[in-house]
Amino acid sequence: TMWAWTLWLLPLLCKFGLADLPDKPENISCVFYYTKNFTCTWSPEKEANFISYTVRRTLCYLRKNDTCISTSENGSSCSFYSRLTPPDIYIIQVEAENAYGIIKSDITYWDLYTVAKIEPPKIFSVKPVLGLKQMVQVKWTQPVLAPKSSTLNYTLRFRSVNSTHWMEVNFTRSCVNEEEAYNLTGLQAFTEYVVALQCVVNKSRFWSGWSQEKRGITVEEAPHGLDLWRVLRSDKVDGKRPVQLLLKKAKGTPVLEKVLGYNIWYFPENNTNLTKTMNTTNQQPELYLGNQTYWIHVISYNSLGKSPEATLRIPAIDEKLFQCIEAMHTSLTQDQLVVEWQSSALEVDTWMVEWVPDLDSKPLAISWESVSHTRNWTIQQDELKPFWCYNISVYPMLQNRVGEPYSIQAYVKEGVPSEGPKTKVENIGVRTVTITWKEIPKHQRNGFINNYTIFYQAEDGKEFSKTVNSSILQYDLESLTRKTSYTVWVKASTSAGGVDGPRINFKTLSISVFEIFLVTSLVGGGLLILIILTVAYGIKKPNKLKHLCWPDVPNPAESSIATWCGDDFKGKLNLKEFDDSVNREDGILKPCYSPNDLIDKLVVNFESFLEVVSTEDPGKVWENILGGEKNEYVASPNRPYCLAVSAEIPPGGPQCLCSGMLEGTCPEAREQLLPPAQGFGPDHLCEEGAPNPYLKNSVTTREFLVSEKRPEQIHREV
User: Is this prediction's pTM over 0.70?
Assistant: First the structure.
């Protein structure tokens, strides 16, 4: 039984013991850094526990052994700095040791020439060769540690300074000379290049690093070609139409030269004798031409020569341009903008594409390019700015004639507008309102506006929205609530999203203008109908309407008092009767009652009265009336009681003048004396009766001046 347990536990103990040993070194790789060291690396690179590594090297040709010791703390590599004797073959084995034991790697063999690695060469010159075009000569020094009398393989890479694409060329050189040179051909004239160089020992697997980059420029040549275009201005200057020329190197030709200037000459199509010339360095010169057709010729030149001649025809101002482009659209690929157009004119095979940013400010410089043998045009997206709208126009060109352009707008990338539309409220009514807004400025749209959404919400109410297309800039909201506050705003949306504009508030009316007009019309109409009916009634029955509007009033001119003038009037005013009716002892005025017809009798015909008065001397009249003595007032005869108007009682006794009193009435008044106990003294007012409503302004309500003379004197003077 004991032996059975021992046999069973022995494999487990061995397994646990092997688990504590270090990992076996694998993936051994060695590099021979010529004349410097021989370095080997392996995996694993790091260990959790401390491990000691021993690299055993055996020199096959010299039959000698040595070791290199390293630890896991220093990494999984070890270098030999002595006995570096190429050519030779090294035998390498790595041992890993920890507290539990030692693990050895497999044995590897290394030929020094196949693992040799040298330093990169050093370039000291990149220059053109005199008399040779499109070429530069590259010169460098050999690596210091390169094996003598060995062959080195080189790789030369180069690119223009404006490009990111490297091109490479391979060649071989021996290590006999310290300096080497290479002629790099097939380059563009007058172009700056960047070059770099690396090398490797023949049969070696390890290339050196890249040398430092060096720049050089090729020699220039005479201009090869020129593209010519124009921009026709609509305004005139001193009767001339301005034409701006656009000059650049022809498409497809390399940048071979440095242009010193341009020679331009132009003339009318039917008269070459009027040729004018211009010499300029400006690539966008401006000419002032007449209304007829012109021909323009341009060449560019430098110190080595001149370019071929470029020709352009400017049509007359009244010339009708031909049309042949039927449709055009744009599309986006991963990194390009593609413009395609359709044309039924098969004879047209050359097109001029023109593009410029569409901004609110002054237009920027126009970009343009000629296209042939195709009906599409592409441009890299990184050549156009994102969120900018571009106007793209395509001009058909048939020989020297330029046709009518076809234009389209495009974005290479769209975004959300920078701000929302500004909103305004107009025509506020009871249940309707008009919402208007302005277009977002072009530089803030960041894309094509697809639609507008109008949001409106009553105070503490539900939010509603209406969506309209981008061509609509106003909308009428209906079915609103009377006399209610609302909040409204407009949202502009592109394919990338939308943004809200500022919010504004308004309040609907409590009554509309139509309702006010309706009520006013009804009231006015009713009054008009009433007036018409009244007029009609007055025409039909004029007496009744006259009596209703203007009642009869007694005419003072028809009163009988007008006949009282002369002796008859003196007889009627028998003032002596007044003396008999006065109690001289008591000095009390008796009440006098006037008859019913007294009012009519006392209405004075002032016209007759004035005629009598006017025949006499004015001074005498007033003297007779006033008598040069103290006057007293007599109340109007329609009052039932009279007033004793003077505190002085003449010797004859107190007097009482009964206004409006006729014969036969004063005897009754004498019999009834008003007792002083009732408050009717000489200085008190008699009780008044109700006035006649038709004679409020007649003589019955006026007061007259009466002389204090005795009745006899008055009777005698009258």
Answer: no
